[in-house]
């Protein structure tokens, strides 16, 4: 695996003192209860990937993707490590090396082919026209919960 995006964060990874303050605020650690699901665990995994000391197997990839990027660990970190930036860089390197998670690959392929994460073809009920205000329904409202888009359009129409 090429870890090009992680290279600029070597100092961040080396600065982690493994104090564990991050564990007390991490939602994925609270759920999983093991170190790879904490910021310090992810720093070690990212460092291992960068130094080619570990392979990007499912357990490593899964631990890096379990991070919610809520940033609570960074706020609690006495060393002010940019945890979210390291995790996102590790994810970028994983994807660049074709080591991403299968559901993510499927979503990306659906977007390329059909223009939406669900891979569905649907005609728009409203066509774009010149206006001061635009409404973007997004994929969830358009494909899974059209009642939200319809209600939003109804409100906008009533407001003129």
What's this model, at a glance?
The protein has 160 residues and is mostly helical. It has 9 helices and no strands. The mean pLDDT is 91.
Any descriptors?
160 residues; mainly alpha; 9 helices; 52% helix; elongated
Task: Reconstruct the topology from this structure.
Elements: H1 10-15, H2 27-32, H3 39-50, H4 58-65, H5 72-76, H6 83-96, H7 102-114, H8 138-144, H9 146-158
Descriptive overview:
This protein has helices at residues 10-15, 27-32, 39-50, 58-65, 72-76, 83-96, 102-114, 138-144, 146-158. The termini are far apart. The protein has nine helices and no strands. The model has no long low-confidence stretch (mean pLDDT 91).
Distance between the termini: 54 Å
Number of strands: 0
Structural class, from helix and strand content? mainly alpha
- pLDDT below 50 for ≥5 consecutive residues: which ranges? none
Strand content: under 5%
Task: Give the radius of gyration.
Answer: 21 Å
| Overall 3D form | elongated
**Average predicted confidence as pLDDT:** 91
Q: What is the element string, with H for helices and E for strands? A: HHHHHHHHH
Can you summarize the main beta sheet?
none
Oligomer description = single chain
Q: Work out the helicity level.
A: 40-55%
Number of H- or I-type helical stretches: 9
């Amino acid at each position: 695996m090429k870890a090009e995006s992680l290279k600029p964060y070597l100092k961040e990874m080396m600065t982690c003192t493994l104090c564990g303050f991050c564990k007390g605020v991490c939602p994925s650690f609270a759920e999983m209860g093991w170190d790879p699901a904490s910021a310090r665990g992810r720093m070690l995994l990212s460092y291992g990937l960068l130094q080619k000391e570990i392979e990007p197997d499912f357990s490593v990839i899964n631990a890096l993707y379990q991070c919610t990027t809520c940033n609570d660990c960074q706020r609690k970190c006495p060393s002010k490590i940019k945890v979210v930036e390291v995790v996102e860089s590790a994810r970028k390197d994983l994807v660049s090396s074709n080591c991403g998670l299968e559901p993510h690959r499927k979503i990306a392929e659906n977007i390329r082919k059909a223009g939406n994460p669900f891979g569905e073809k649907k005609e728009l009920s409203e066509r774009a026209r010149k206006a001061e205000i635009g409404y973007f329904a997004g994929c969830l409202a358009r494909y899974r919960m059209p009642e939200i888009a319809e209600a939003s359009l109804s409100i906008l129409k009533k407001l003129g």
